[in-house]
Design brief:
- The chain is 74% helix and 0% strand.
- It has six helices and no strands.
- The protein is globular.
- The two termini are 21 Å apart.
Length: 167
Amino acid sequence: MAQEAAVNAEHRRVLSLLAEYGISHQNKRNKLIHWFAVPVIVWTIVAMLWEIPVPDSFSSLAYLNWATIALAATIVYYLFLSWTLAIGMALLAALCAALVVLYLQAPVAGLPLWQFAVIAFVIAWAFQFIGHQIEGRKPSFFKDIQFLLIGPAWLMSFIYRKLGLPV
């Protein structure tokens, strides 16, 4: 009974966070911008972290770097919110990592990964702020920094609903 109550409390918490995030994301144009900009921002952060030099001790494990460590930590955060949502976010993390590896094999316009990521990051955030200007509300993370992690989960929750999956 206590375990069930804890699961219900966690479920209410994730639903509360998603609903609170949604308050400042009602405008259709702002939502559309988020569908493009949020995944780009997530990828660019992964890409920039991937480029930070790692200690020699990391070399014993393939793909062990600051990006994969950060991705693992975010998946743990999502696990505390919702194990089902964590699965989708883990798939997004794997996709981001795969796209980084692909980029490293074939850079766009000959730009190093970090340069392309910085440019894309700035452009995506510019669009985010344009979306919030249209919305007439500040981005949620101004209120609480954890909303930077809720944004991608908020989008994932729409995919889950479309597929009939629980959040």
